[in-house]
Write a structure and sequence with these properties.
It is a single chain. By secondary structure, this protein is mainly alpha-helical. It has one domain. It contains three helices and no strands. The radius of gyration is 21 Å and the shape is elongated.
């Protein structure tokens, strides 16, 4: 194999590793954020303001689900890719298999973006709730 091809393979491995680490980091942060918001809501009385952290919880839960789906699609893509590389099948079948790998990687990327977007929105909405709550307490 040429050194250029080996360099491409190494860069791809680094990219996959970085994506996995980012997903796990966001999954951990999402879990901690959900636990934090739930403990903060535990002692509150029911007001119209409580819907804001509930929206934040919904977005954080979606972020967790999107992250799990991203990791699942990436694992399926890696498994399908390794099976295609091991097999002694005709070129047409291997090409179909690699198109399936590309499809799974695109789905994983979509779920990565959705995970990051919903996590940031959930955190932002909760921050708005905190500042709004502080503002309303100073007005009373």
């Amino acid at each position: 194999m040429s050194t250029n091809r080996l360099a491409q393979i190494e860069l791809l491995k680094l990219n996959v590793s970085l994506i996995e680490k980012t997903n796990f980091m966001l999954l951990t942060a999402t879990t901690a954020s959900i636990a934090y918001v739930l403990t903060q809501l535990k002692g509150l009385i029911w007001t119209n303001l409580i819907y804001i952290p509930m929206a934040s919880l919904l977005l954080l839960a979606l972020s967790f689900l999107f992250g799990c789906n991203a990791l699942n699609n990436m694992a399926k893509a890696l498994k399908t890719n390794s099976l295609a590389l091991k097999s002694n099948q005709p070129h047409d079948i291997v090409a179909i298999t690699f198109s399936e790998v590309e499809r799974l990687i695109k789905r994983a990327h979509l779920f990565d973006v959705l995970q990051q977007l919903t996590f940031c929105l959930g955190a932002l909405i909760y921050a708005v709730y905190i500042f709004l709550n502080i503002y309303l307490k100073t007005k009373v």
